[in-house]
């Protein structure tokens, strides 16, 4: 079975072809091609501008993906596309392209939940069985378990996501979105001078807007370096997430933790969660960095599973 996955929820337009057979346990990713919209420094993603970017690169990304896979459209058995959640104008680009291919070549079309794509690909690539899942990205911050044939959210952010916290403070510093990797680099250069920031956790739920407001206010005083501010933001936010995960592990008695989503690429977050798992004698799995961010493979693989 061959499936083409098309991802276009936010800043990335991506296509991937996956071959699947019952004899193989893991997805055979034949191609994974991406093109990311670059926002101007100090600004976020503008949905219409990102959509125009996706429309301009779509043909080239599709063509390269099929060439790397050494297949043609007529060889495909399925076409899957990200149906949300995401930015409306960006989602429409991917949906229109997927529907056009499906209609012209008479190929089955499958809409995919973007968040579920992160989880399913992460589970397959790490061979996770029955995990507590932490999904952290620009659009999601959720703790989930699979129960009664459904994914259940047992903890989440009550305001902005972890990715939005990093991106919005990064834009405050004049960085271009997405800012997560640059925030991590600045934090790594810090002298480890921790600056006290609001720490808010309620049960398994967290709130990050207080951290963002306080960090912006303190940074405007010029008393602290950007490096120390980034270090303090990471330490505070990641400690909150880790505490929420530890509470969820105790409540669910799961023996595995799976970390997925774009922010899962952050090494400090992975280290803190790994230490927490060691304390609870739980196996820690993290989606490979190559597939941490938005990609077509997560859509194609979830399409096959569907």
Q: Can you describe this structure in just a few lines?
A:
By secondary structure, the chain is an alpha/beta fold. It has nine helices and twelve strands.
General description of the model:
The protein is of the alpha/beta class. It folds into two domains: 132 residues, ATPase, nucleotide binding domain (Nucleotidyltransferase, domain 5); 159 residues, 2-Layer Sandwich (Nucleotidyltransferase, domain 5). 44% of the residues lie in helices and 22% in strands. It is built from nine helices and twelve strands. The strands form three sheets. A five-stranded mixed beta sheet has the order 3-2-1-4-5, with helices on both faces. Strands 8-7-6-11-12 form a five-stranded mixed beta sheet, with helices on both faces. The protein is globular. The protein starts with a strand and ends with a helix. The mean pLDDT is 96.
Shape: globular
Could you say how many structural domains there are in total? 2
* DSSP, total strands: 12
Span between N and C termini?
A: 13 Å
Helix content: 40-55%
Q: Using the CA coordinates, give the radius of gyration.
A: 20 Å
The CATH superfamily of the largest domain turns out to be: ATPase, nucleotide binding domain
Q: What is the string of SSEs from the N terminus onward?
A: EEEHEHEHEEEHHEEHHEHEH
Classified by CATH, the class of the largest domain is: Alpha Beta
From the 3D coordinates, which CATH architecture of the largest domain would you assign?
Answer: 2-Layer Sandwich
Structural class by secondary-structure content: alpha/beta
